[in-house]
């Protein structure tokens, strides 16, 4: 399937593009990205983390961290981000760790290293008895000794320290319920989770400057880079199972760290360059290979996944787009390319057409819920249409348009509208908000008709019906409609309003009426449902001073001219 969400990020013109850090939750439902770390006023640093909802492709939350006024430290570029279950996101720096509570959108706790310590890598492991633990690979002192610090994932409290060998070049850490694995410059050391004792060791890897995140473990199979190959190692014995040459068709600038995850109990998925491999857990051998071509027009592209899902984060002209596809053993190639608005519209139209064919051309009346569709064999009778709230008057004995024809005309009207504020932008009904198209003039709304149209639009995902409902501005009708709307539809309505506000700020004067009325009903109480709206407002507030300063400069230039 396909999903996408475009986000325009703001940065200083002189800023150098840096690689985004990307992580996917274990259930594959949330994707996190750190696009950049931008120095702020007076040496302060602002860190932003974008959270995408994978199923819908919507930017769900933007997490923002700013140092306190009394904190003079400056955040360095993050080393790694990773999820701890669905409720916690960890950002690792060279000298500290931030753990975000995703339910509340705040930093739950910090872990700071000593001045003599340096953080190299971090990971998470879950145990059915003891819950989840955080692990940080730390250079303990100048002697080159390396330790693994274990913390409770729930509160960040230190639990124990585990010796992990000595010698420079420690650069990677991985863990699962049984093992801790440490990648040194020339070897991989496997330790027991229980007592921290060495279980096995794989030597003679000889890969200097292997880079960040160059080691991973899934189902007791370790993957790491050595001599231009990805080496697969048995964690229990330390023996090499197989090796896969690095994809030579991938340029250095387009190459990202490989990703390894469990597809199912018998197979793993390994992604590197333009290749996607299915690996047998029993033997460590490649069973299936897909080709997933990289788009040369993109600035950056990263692939990761969970289960049978392959997800890509694409970067082009400062915009991020998330695309996703399920793996199919019958395919030879996987297409995860940049989607233009025309491509997105075309795919949505094809999906709608397929859905319509599947439903045997069901036509919904404005007073019907999604499961109460009328099967239309031809034009609707005048009697049926008169029973609906949006019927047109008969003209010279001719039949009025069918509901399907009405929606087509409405779409034409919406396409012609530029959605800009007009002088008389305080209309009280539908007839003042949409231009007439092909002789179509919507009727003034009532509470009953508005409620039915809004309910049908939210249930069926029909943007045309939602737009028709949102064109109403009579606060009395809006209040009555929001009070009578089903509880399960309220989050969908709030999301529809938020997405439209984010897409075009000029609609704020109109849509803010809906938002205000909906919130005044007191029926939206979940913080999770309000979080996207809160983040949108916070982002607009943050950029407002810069925009105000720009307006002042432009005004000064205009006066000078």
Word description of this protein:
The protein has helices spanning 341-358, 382-386, 403-416, 447-460, 463-470, 475-484, 490-503, 508-520, 527-560, and strands spanning 7-8, 21-24, 30-34, 37-39, 45-53, 58-66, 80-84, 88-92, 96-101, 106-112, 118-127, 131-139, 145-152, 158-166, 172-175, 179-183, 188-192, 198-202, 215-218, 221-226, 229-234, 240-245, 259-262, 267-272, 275-280, 286-291, 300-306, 309-316, 319-326, 362-363, 374-375. It is of the alpha+beta class and 561 residues long. Strands 2, 3, 4, 5 and 6 form a five-stranded antiparallel β-sheet that branches. Helix 6 (475-484) packs across helix 8 (508-520) and helix 7 packs antiparallel against helix 8 (508-520). The radius of gyration is 28 Å and the shape is globular.
Fraction of residues in helix:
10-25%
Rounded radius of gyration (Å): 28 Å
Low-confidence stretches: 1-19, 37-44, 209-213, 360-398, 417-443
Arithmetic mean pLDDT: 75
Structure classification: alpha+beta
């Amino acid at each position: 399937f396909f999903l996408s969400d475009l986000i325009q990020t703001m940065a200083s013109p002189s800023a150098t593009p840096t690689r985004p850090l990307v992580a996917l939750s274990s259930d594959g439902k949330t994707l996190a990205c750190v696009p950049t770390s931008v120095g702020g006023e007076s040496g302060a640093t602002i860190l932003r983390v974008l959270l995408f909802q994978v199923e819908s492709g919507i930017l769900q939350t933007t997490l923002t961290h700013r140092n306190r006024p009394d904190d003079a430290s400056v955040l360095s570029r993050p080393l790694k981000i990773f999820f701890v279950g669905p409720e916690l996101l960890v950002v690792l720096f060279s000298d500290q760790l931030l753990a975000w509570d995703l339910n509340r959108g705040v930093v739950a706790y910090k872990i700071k290293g000593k001045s003599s310590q340096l953080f190299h890598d971090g990971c998470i492991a879950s145990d059915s008895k003891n819950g989840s633990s955080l692990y940080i690979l730390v250079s303990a002192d100048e002697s080159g000794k390396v330790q693994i610090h274990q913390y409770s994932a729930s509160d960040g409290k230190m639990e124990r320290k585990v010796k992990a060998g000595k010698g420079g070049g420690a650069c990677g850490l991985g863990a699962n319920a049984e093992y801790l694995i440490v990648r040194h410059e020339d070897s991989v050391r496997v330790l027991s989770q229980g007592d921290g004792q060495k279980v096995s060791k794989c030597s003679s890897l000889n890969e200097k400057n292997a880079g960040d995140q160059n080691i991973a473990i899934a189902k007791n199979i370790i993957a790491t880079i050595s001599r231009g190959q990805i080496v697969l190692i048995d964690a229990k014995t330390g023996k090499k199972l197989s090796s896969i040459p690095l994809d030579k068709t991938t340029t250095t600038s387009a190459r990202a760290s490989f990703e390894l995850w469990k597809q199912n109990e018998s197979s793993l998925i390994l992604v590197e360059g333009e290749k996607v491999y299915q690996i047998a857990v029993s033997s460590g051998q490649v069973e299936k290979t897909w080709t997933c071509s990289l788009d040369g027009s993109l600035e950056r592209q990263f692939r990761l996944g969970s289960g049978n899902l392959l997800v890509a984060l694409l970067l082009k002209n400062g915009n991020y787009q998330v695309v996703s596809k399920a793996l199919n053993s019958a395919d030879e190639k996987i297409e995860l390319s940049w989607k233009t608005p025309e491509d997105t519209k075309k795919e949505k139209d094809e999906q709608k057409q397929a859905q319509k064919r599947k439903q045997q051309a069901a036509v919904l009346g404005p007073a019907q819920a999604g499961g109460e569709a009328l099967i239309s064999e031809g034009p609707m009778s005048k009697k049926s249409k008169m029973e609906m709230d949006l019927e047109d008057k008969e003209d010279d004995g001719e039949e009025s348009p069918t509901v399907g024809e009405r929606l087509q005309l409405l779409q034409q009207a919406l396409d012609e509208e530029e959605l800009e504020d007009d002088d008389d932008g305080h209309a009280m009904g539908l007839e003042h908000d949409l231009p007439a198209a092909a002789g179509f003039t919507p009727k003034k709304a009532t509470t009953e008709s508005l409620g039915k149209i809004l309910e049908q639009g939210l249930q069926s995902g029909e943007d045309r019906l939602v737009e028709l409902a949102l064109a109403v501005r009579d606060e009395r009708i809006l209040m009555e409609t929001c009070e009578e709307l089903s509880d399960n539809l309220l989050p969908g309505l709030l999301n529809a309003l938020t997405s439209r506000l984010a897409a075009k700020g000029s609609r704020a004067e109109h849509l803010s009426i809906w938002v205000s009325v909906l919130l005044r009903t007191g029926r939206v109480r979940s913080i999770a449902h309000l979080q996207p709206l809160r983040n949108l407002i916070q982002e607009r507030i943050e950029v407002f001073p810069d925009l105000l300063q720009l307006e002042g400069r432009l005004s000064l230039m205009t006066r000078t001219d």
